[in-house]
Amino acid sequence: MKGSLLSASVAAVALLFGGTAAYAGGEACRAAHTQADYQKMAEKLAAKGWLGIDTEKTASGAYAVKAVVAGSPAERAGFQKGDVLVALNGVQLGDESQKDALYKVKSELGPGKTATYTVTRYGSEKAITATYGEVPRDVLAAWLGEHVLEHTSVAVASVN
Ligand SMILES: [Zn+2]
């Protein structure tokens, strides 16, 4: 995994929640962004809302919660470190055949919207309902920064 601990976890979250990676090759993505592109990108990212979990891919390809941000919507909802994400609003995660359904579910999320995640915790399934919050300024800055880094070939030291 490239990048620092922060960018690695941001990238994982971006993959899972359709963050900056969604712009790679997209209409808003050019080799050199204009101010208008950044404006559009920031608006789109902010519209996704924020949950406050960092995830990492497990050996089986699932996403496990690596950290829950203190005071975040995820913490209020009851997410715990080690929870493995199974489904979002009933749509299986990590199932290629459910890609379109998952895209639709994600596109309907945003600040103030509620979603129910199915997770496995200590071997049993559990439903966690969370209300997405506004994306904090530092998180938005990290998402945008990660996208900018994707356009560069700068070597970034890994801390893990
Ligand atoms: Zn771009």
> Into how many domains do the coordinates divide?
2
CA-based shape: globular
CATH architecture of the largest domain: Roll
Structural class: alpha+beta
The proportion of strand residues reads 15-25%
How does this structure look, described?
The relative contact order is 0.21. The protein has two domains: 1-48 and 135-160, no CATH class; 52-134, PDZ domain (Pdz3 Domain, Roll), CATH 2.30.42. Strand 1 (53-57) and strand 2 form a beta hairpin. Strands 1, 2, 3, 4, 5 and 6 form a six-stranded antiparallel sheet that branches. The protein contains five helices and six strands; from the N terminus they run H-H-E-E-H-E-E-H-E-E-H. The protein is an alpha+beta fold and 160 residues long. The N and C termini lie close together (9 Å). Bound molecules: zinc ion (ZN). Zinc ion binds at residues 23, 29, 33, 147, 151.
Note the main attributes of this structure.
160 residues; alpha+beta; Pdz3 Domain; 2 domains; six-stranded antiparallel beta sheet; globular; disordered N terminus; binds zinc ion
Can you lay out the helices and strands and say which pair or pack?
Layout (H helix, E strand, L loop, with lengths): L4 H13 L17 H13 L5 E5 L5 E6 L4 H5 L6 E5 L2 E2 L6 H9 L6 E8 L2 E8 L5 H14 L10
The protein binds zinc ion.
The site of zinc ion has 5 residues, from loops.
Q: What's the short story on this structure?
A:
By secondary structure, the chain is an alpha+beta fold.
